[in-house]
Structure formats: C-alpha cells, structure tokens
Automatic annotation (TrEMBL):
It comes from the Eukaryota. This is asparagine--tRNA ligase. The chain holds residues 141 to 596 of 596 of the full protein. One of its GO terms (biological process) is asparaginyl-tRNA aminoacylation. GO terms for molecular function: asparagine-tRNA ligase activity; ATP binding; nucleic acid binding.
Amino acid sequence: AAKKIKIRDAAENRAPTRVKVSGWIHRLRDQSKMIFITLRDGTGLLQCILTDNLTKTYDAMTLTNETSITLFGEIKPVPEGAQAPGGHELHVDYYEVIGKAPGGAEAITNIVARDADNQTKYDNRHLTLRGDIASATLKVRAAVAKAFRQSYEDLGLLEVTPPCMVQTQVEGGSTLFEFNYYGEKAYLTQSSQLYLETCLPSLGDVFCIQESFRAEKSLTRRHLSEYTHIEAELAFITFDDLLSHLEEMLCRTIDYVWNDPVTKQHIIDLNKEATNEAKRRGDPTVFEFKPPQRPFLRMSYADAIKWLNEHNILNEEGKPHAFGDDIAEAAERRMTDIINKPIFLTKFPVEIKAFYMKKDLEDPRVTESVDCLMPGVGEIVGGSMRMDDLNELLAAYQREGIAPEPYYWFTDQRKYGTTPHGGYGIGLERFLAWMCGRYTVRECSLYPRWMGRCTP
Ligand code: 4AD
Ligand code: MG
C-alpha cells in the first residue's frame, strides 16, 4: 500500500518507495506523451511525472495550475544530470483530482500578474501567498520567531503574554487606536513594555512576542498599523549590559536562522530576487545577507548629528541637522546605507524620546536610549533604560501632559522595591525586511494592515 507523505519527507529521504502525496499544482509542463507537474504542499515542491495512459484522460488533458490533486506512485532520485526541486521525483501510476482551479482570465497569474499594481496585489493577498516569494518570506518569518524564542530560552528569559486591550499609551498619543470597551475608552496596545516591567519582581527577566498597533497616518515602506513586536525587559542591569544583551540576542538569533540550511537557502533566494527586482526599477543595489560582525558600531546621537552634517545630509526642513532634531527616516536610512553595517545609535535627547526613559547621569540632556539601525531599513530596534525613581517618573508624567491615574500600576513598580532596569522592542517585519531584502515591511506580514487597508 502507498504511504501518505508530505513533500518534505521525500526531500529529507524519509519517504518509502511507494507513496501517496497531495497538494496543489504549482507548475505544469505538457510534453508529448508526458506531463510534468510541480506539486506544492507547503512543505516543498516535488516534480511528478505522468506517462502513457495517464496522460490521455480528460482530467489529464484539462489540468490547470492551482488544482488540488492526490498522486500515487514511486519516489525516485532524480537521474544524474537532471534537475528537480528536492532531488527526487514521483513516477505517478494513479491520481485523483480533488478540486479544479479555473484557467484563462480567472487564473491567479492573470488576476495578479507579476507587474500588477499594489492595490490588486494586496486585494489578492490570499492568492499571492501561494507564490514563491511570499511563501519563502513567511517561512523565514516562522524560523526567525522560533530562533528568537530559542535565544531567549538560552539566556534565561521567560515568555509572557501581555494584553492587547489597554488604557495607557506608551509611545505617544498621536498613534493610538481607540475603541469602545463596554462604554469605557480603551486602546490597542502600542507596546507591551509597561506590562513587562511589572513582571520583573515576579518572573525575573521576561520577553513577549505580541502584536502592537500604531495609527500611523503616513504611508512608508516601514510602517504598519499592526506589527509583531518582540520585546524584552531585564532587571538589575546597566545601559552597557542592555547593549551587550541586545547584540547577543540579535547575533545568536541570526546564527540559529543562518545555520538552518533550508531557511538559509530561502534567504539567499529572496536576496537574489531583490537584486533582480531592484534592477527592474533601475536601482543597481545588490542585495546579499551576511550575518553581521561583532561588536556592532556604537555611535551617540550627538556624533550622528555631526556625521550627517559632515556628509551634507539635511534635516526635514532642508537645513543642516542641529542637536535636538529628530533624525528623520530618509536621513537615518542614508546614513545606515553609507555605513553599511548595524549601528547602535545611543543617547537621544530627552525631548525627542518617550516619557519613561532614564536620563544619562553624565549628561542630563540625553537619555540612556538605543536604536539599532540596519542597512536597507534603518531602525529595527528601539530600547532604553527606564526611569526607576518615583518622583522623577511623576515629574515626567507632568512634563508630557500625561494623566497619572491610569498608570497607577506602572507607577507602583517604583514604590514597591524599585530597581534599575531596561529593555527594548524589535519590529519583526523590519528585521525580516532587512534579512530578506524586501522592499517594504508589508511583504513580511501575513495580512498587512496600514492606513487604508484592513482587508483581507
Ligand atoms: O521604537 P518603538 O516605538 O519602541 C517601543 O515601542 C518601546 N516601548 C519598546 C520597548 O522598549 N519595549 O518601537 C520598537 C520597534 C521599532 O524599532 C520598529 O522596529 C518597530 O518597533 N515599529 C514598527 N514596525 C512596523 N510598523 C510600525 N508602525 C512600527 N512602529 C515601531
Ligand atoms: Mg523608535
């Protein structure tokens, strides 16, 4: 009898000779007397060969891409000199069509052609998901999330699941999504940071991989309305400890991902495709992912301002940068692309950073804060040491015009055994855009949301 397998089993030499395999027709090649089906089942691709009588039925003659089908036959290694994905092929002796897919104008490749506009592409995200690029990106995404979890376990952090429905802001009122919570005002969380801070005395160092929400009113390559936020919080650390931990986490995670041959191949393929795609846009950039060298370059905000001015990169008003200016996305991206390696940008001025950040003891104009910048994307991580003094925090609420009442539970951390502590948040989609050479974070989300898009 035939044993039911997944395509991955054949690629990994775990399949018996006689098998039953089900999937969707990814590609179809009809030659005289033979039909070649590239079958896709989500775990890989398998070349299936129909010969003789099998090619002469009505079903065989009307096969279309994306038809679902079950095939029976013998798995054999691909003959010397020939090529097929996974190195195996299926010599089919029987098959059943399960669900036909339309050809012609209704075929997926015609509904969303390669050069379709973005509206069409994202309206049909449920169909484009079946393509090589989307599926490779989402497989790398799963591998990256798994690797982050593994690294956190190695370093002894515990995973928690903070709430998404909250009544406090973290990163400024202008990007809050508000909703009606049984008649009370509530928000979708912008960051789980404040909740992670409350876990320290109970659970020790913690992390979460949770959705964050930002009502971003601009359309950029790196902003989503909903994104996956990898956040961690550590107690009894210094700012230097925070930077070392972050570098260790990023490098360890990248090593796990890069040492997995299947994932590595996806990353290489995606970067090659990015290079070709850039060429079509007339952009000569060559995309190639390489695990970064340690230690990461550390640059203070003040030095970055100098660097930008030395390189004639202007601020948003078209003037030279002054201390206190926000470094806008375009300037940040140019700087990172020129330096072309990861940068820890540290010690941002108090005025341009969030209310909870601890001030630098040596220079009270700046905070113990860090952004990690990566070529092609810019900021992928934001973190800081937190104000651990009760009175300083109360003053910060007042300075920022934040009503302290809803934060009573956060404030209490400073009352019941405060400690120096800090943490950070990594945007998973930005991390992936960097690693996979994607043009926008939208490609790194299963069903991306941004201003104007909440479907499918
Ligand atoms: O720099 P942010 O706003 O920092 C925080 O939220 C901190 N409370 C995190 C912490 O310390 N626990 O966001 C952190 C990261 C950014 O560096 C970026 O990678 C990502 O989250 N991010 C977004 N990604 C996609 N779309 C958006 N609209 C994003 N906003 C932030
Ligand atoms: Mg930030």
